[in-house]
Amino acid sequence: TMYTRVGFLLARRSRFEELKSLVAQMDAEGNPPGGLFHDEVLRACIISKNFNAVVPWMRAMKESNFTPSATTLERAFAMTKDADEEAMEKITEAVLASQPQMSVTGYNMILHSFARRGSVARALKLLKTMKGNHVQPDTVSYNTLINGCAREGDLALAQRCFDDMRRDRIQPTMYTYGALFNAHARSSTAGNSIAVRRLEQLYRRMKDEGFRPNVVVFNAILRGCRDSGDLQKLETWLHRMEKEGVLFDRYTWAIVRYTNLPRRLLERVQRLSDPDRARYAQKRAIVSNHANRNAAPVAAENSNRYRRRRPADYEDEPNYYPQFRRDHR
């Protein structure tokens, strides 16, 4: 344990000559470095963002018949956003070489790293490698790809990934549809009514499959209507959003804030987009659905999603539930 701690500190400070001496000393004492030692040194290289040292150390681990743990790999690809393209390629190759039987979770880590950096083409190439190694992609794999395409504004590629997902008989989730809606919304331009129609068709398809639209879906549709300049449909979708019981959020207000919608509607959206009101509405839902009403305030506080102060009263929010008073004095 002492050697492991010293090795971690030396790697953290990029003192690799002393680290080699420490490894030689451990071998001389008949106590060669184990998997934990290698793992901690690799983690220190990643934390210190010394990406040039990551690949050689992973090779050393492979020569010693050790493989990095899943936690270390996750940390590695979480930190690669600061690495350049060349370092990223080398780290990916080293990881694939060290773990020929990598699980779908490991591949998803690398896919997420590529998609976050905007390297969608490399992510698709990795997906082919994944299938070639007889590892079946899951929902997370395709969700990551579709979200990466949405960030890049590549609607055609996002739709192709969605079709491939269907072809592989993988059921989409609400996150899948949220990413696909964002890809459609980003393709909206002034006077482009086709994009809005596609959003509406996708909305109907999602509803037919039994999904309940959330605020992400509605915000994407609102953004598409705004960018295409169709204020009439923008107003219609705002009313539909309320009818579906979906709470506005600050992104909803940011979308409609500088449009020429009726003033009363804008004021209503601004008021209902207040995050305190949204928290209080969710808190009231917990109370109304809780079997033991006396324990309901405690359950609401234990959810860790709400502030310990009561929001200001609103015109359409009567001051219900006196049992909350002791929590908001």
UniProtKB/TrEMBL annotation:
**Keywords linked to the UniProt accession:** Repeat
Report any Pfam family annotated for this entry: PPR
PPR-type repeats, residues:
103-137, 138-172, 214-248
- PANTHER family assigned to the protein according to its UniProt record, in alphabetical order: OS03G0856100 PROTEIN, OS12G0638900 PROTEIN
Query: Where is the region Disordered?
Result: 285-329
Q: Which InterPro entries match?
A: PPR_rpt, TPR-like_helical_dom_sf
Organism taxonomic ancestry: Eukaryota, Sar, Rhizaria, Cercozoa, Chlorarachniophyceae
Name of this chain's protein: Pentacotripeptide-repeat region of PRORP domain-containing protein
